[in-house]
């Protein structure tokens, strides 16, 4: 692991060999292993939806308090977000803790693994915080699956003092360097005028017609969208009775693109399709963003390779892939501070994310190993950067 040699603190130099630092990290992970795994299992067994993760937050806070972390005087506005820290060094390492589940299928994206590995990394870094002149900052980031809690924390300034940010994500295999798709979600409402569908249809203004026209226009527009674009639409309301002209029609639209810039192109075109449906039918249109827009993920090259080195040393085969996978609000974080979001793998017997089958393996022995390895890997990556003079200077300039 290059650069793990010494760190200057004023005029003093504190020697630190790679083996010494990595040994301290490993000792800390082993010391806190019961707490880390108990946290993962407890969150897995008690899934909570985004913005409602009150019990998960209590569990995370309890572990951090027991390790001597203090909670910042100013806390995020969201009730299930938090900001805690250990140490007082100028280089601030942020660990992002996700803990929200999915409706009906629990932790089918493995956020209990994400949460526990981030907390484990924070505990490991606390053991070397004074030695490396760093501050370990832990941010509880709710609602990744829905509204994007990290974006709110960015807007509120909680990443303003951060030098680097990191987390690991549960997966079927180990991958570094991957990107994600920018994403935006809208709630759409068309409103018309009801009428008897047989006795007086001409007196009605059909909101479902507006939605059908808009959906058809979106389908035709897909050919002209930027490469890699995805537009998904589901109708959530389309009328209440077959003999009544629908007064209201609702839909949820999800738009994804390789970049925020391309996402804006998609959104402009989709909005015109919606407006076309409203104009053709005579309905009114209301478009409401559902949560924050997600940016594409940009992973830091140095931190990614340092993480890969550490995980390889633990016997893991870590692939590199720049391919975009799904969407995450960690992408927004990566646009304001150097970040990593590697995938940490365990055996899920071929199950895909966001399925009950994937959730079933979240507290398995393989998942537990992924939590501990991920804790070590993230902490080791942060230490590699902290002790590399050029990287430390780069990160302090962010």
Automatic annotation (TrEMBL):
NCBIfam families: amidohydrolases (TIGR01891). One of its GO terms (cellular component) is cytoplasm. This is Peptidase M20 domain-containing protein 2. GO terms for molecular function: dipeptidase activity; para-aminobenzoyl-glutamate hydrolase activity. SUPFAM superfamilies: Bacterial exopeptidase dimerisation domain, Zn-dependent exopeptidases. Residues 188-275 form the Peptidase M20 dimerisation domain. InterPro entries: Amidohydrolase, Bact_exopeptidase_dim_dom, Peptidase_M20, Peptidase_M20/M20A_hydrolases, Peptidase_M20_dimer, Xaa-Arg_dipeptidase. Belongs to the peptidase M20A family. It holds the Pfam family M20_dimer. One of its GO terms (biological process) is folic acid catabolic process.
């Amino acid at each position: 692991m290059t650069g793990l040699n010494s760190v200057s603190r004023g005029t003093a130099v504190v020697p630190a060999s790679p083996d010494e630092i990595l040994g301290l990290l490993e000792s800390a992970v082993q010391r806190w292993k019961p707490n880390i795994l108990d946290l993962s299992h407890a969150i897995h067994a008690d899934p909570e939806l985004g913005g409602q993760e009150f019990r998960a937050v209590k569990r995370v806070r309890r572990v951090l308090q027991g390790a001597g972390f203090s909670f910042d005087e100013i806390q995020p506005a969201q009730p299930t977000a938090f900001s805690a820290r250990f140490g007082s060094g100028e280089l601030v390492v942020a660990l992002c803790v996700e803990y929200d589940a999915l409706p009906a299928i629990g932790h089918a994206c493995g956020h209990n693994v994400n949460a526990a590995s981030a907390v484990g990394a924070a505990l490991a870094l606390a053991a070397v915080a004074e030695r490396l002149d760093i501050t370990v900052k832990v941010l509880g980031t709710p609602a990744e699956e829905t509204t994007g809690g990290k974006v709110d924390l960015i807007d509120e300034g909680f990443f303003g003092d951060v030098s680097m940010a990191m987390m690991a994500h549960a997966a079927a295999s180990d991958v570094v360097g991957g990107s994600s798709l920018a994403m935006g979600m809208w709630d759409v409402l068309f409103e018309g005028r009801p009428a008897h569908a047989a006795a007086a249809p001409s007196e009605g203004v059909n909101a479902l017609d507006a939605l059908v026209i808009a959906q058809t226009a979106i389908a035709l527009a897909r050919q002209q969208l930027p490469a890699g674009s995805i537009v998904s639409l589901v109708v959530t309301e389309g009328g209440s009775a077959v003999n009544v002209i629908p007064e209201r029609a609702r839909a949820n639209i999800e738009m994804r693109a390789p970049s925020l810039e391309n996402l804006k192109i998609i959104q402009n075109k989709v909005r015109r399709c919606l407006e076309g449906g409203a104009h053709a039918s005579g309905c009114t249109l209301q478009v409401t963003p559902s949560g924050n827009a997600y940016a594409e993920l940009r992973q830091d090259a140095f931190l990614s390779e340092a993480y890969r080195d550490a995980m390889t040393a633990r016997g893991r085969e870590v692939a590199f892939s720049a391919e975009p996978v799904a969407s995450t609000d960690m992408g927004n974080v990566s646009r304001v501070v150097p970040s990593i979001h590697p995938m940490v793998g365990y055996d899920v017997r071929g199950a895909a994310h966001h399925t009950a089958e994937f959730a079933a393996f979240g507290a398995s022995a393989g998942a537990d190993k992924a939590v501990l390895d991920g804790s070590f890997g993230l902490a080791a990556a942060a230490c590699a950067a902290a002790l590399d003079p050029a990287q430390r200077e780069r990160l302090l300039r962010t």
